[in-house]
Amino acid sequence: MNCIVTAGPTFEPLDDVRRLTNFSTGRLGTELANFLAARGHRVTLLVGESATYKGECNAQSVKTFSTTADLRAQLKAFAGKKVDAIFHAAAVSDFAFGQIFKETKAGEFSALKTAKKISTRSGSLLVELVPTPKIIAELRGWFPKTKIIGWKFEADGGRADALHAAEKQLADCATDFCVANGPAYGKGFSLVTGHGQKHFAMLEKLFAALEQI
Hints:
The protein is of the alpha/beta class. Helix content is about 25%, strand content about 30%. The protein starts with a strand and ends with a helix.
């Protein structure tokens, strides 16, 4: 199969020096790409340039991405090509910077023009955070016949909340499967479909199930 795996975080720049990002090493996606490559599949790994995992990488093609817009553009560039499966495990930034305001001497805030490096002499800043576009919601339009597997990392709530969030992703984004994990889910992973879910305690077992689908 021709597979695309995304891994690691995107980031959103405040200026040319500072950025907003997610905690993600890129390890899970890289190891999934290795597993698929070892089983004879053609794998393109799209990995965040901020990913810290430096382990073995055996994907036949490795490309790096930076911002959410960059990852979106790279995925969209595959539209129209033969892609059998997309494993979207990247930790895409949920927010980007909107307007930035600086505090005046009068204690009010005024809009700050963008700069290559915002000086700390500007004093306190008030920063607007705006939601980034949901890449996973666009994949079905670009890849109508591709198996699309998303990830849902939930930090708050319990296992039922994590599974509900995964089910919502399936319904909202027209994906085929969703992997639920994170502190809310607890140890292990769940592979969620429109017909139920299956728990996997070991990552290797999850990878094997993902290949089978």
